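As noted in the main text, all predictions were made from sequence alone. Below is one such record, for Kinase D-interacting substrate.
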Amino acid sequence: MEHHENMIPCQCPSDFGEVLPKEMYLAAKHGQLRKIKQYLEKGHDVNACDEDSCSLLASASIANRLEVVRFLHRFPQLHRNVTDWSGDTPLMHAARMGHREVVEELLTCPHPCRLNVDILNSHEDKAETIAIASSNEDIARLIQNTQLPRLQWHPDLCQALVPARMPVAEVIFECNVCYEDYDTRDRRPRVLSCGHSLCTTCISMMLGTGRLVCALCRCAHNSRINRATDLPVNYELDKVLQERQHLS
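Prediction:
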């Protein structure tokens, strides 16, 4: 049976011409999402690798930083099959370490760079066999049984997460999708049925795509919601915003 063109794994390049600074490798390792965001906003390559050919995605996959992996998935130019000095891919690292949620994110995110689950490292092992050798049989079954999504880009399904370890004072006034500060107008915080809040503008944009999916828990919400204003305002947060506005 002939494979459809968009079912072929991405043939990722091996050299991106930019060296990833050690501090950024560590930022991905420690889940410092703000620092990574600022680094990439300056125009740096999301695929840059350090001296050991480890990328931001590899570092996050090794350290089980699911929020960083999801953030990096926002970039359609991200290459996910890049191998390090030992021939390991981010998927292999996560499979070896037993990071099931990261493995599932890599497998199921509908990203333009289609994963190659059959690529072999320098020891002639692929991700599934690495998982078995590491006594992570559940992850091996996950890799074996998951049907990879077709090559397509769904921004509403691959939004960034604010890391749970980030101090509340730093994120309470910021939308978890656009990173813009909440206000009492276009970016007024509204509560989804899952309990998480997003700004009115981002909810409107998601509704425009035909899907309203929470960027934090990925819960799909009622299709009968037609406008962002149909959702309730987060009045506790709204009250704080009004007080701040009054003081300023």
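Residues 1-6, 151-172 have pLDDT under 50 and may be disordered. The domain at 174-246 is CATH 3.30.40.10 (Herpes Virus-1). These features were considered when defining construct boundaries for the mutagenesis experiments described in Section 2.9.
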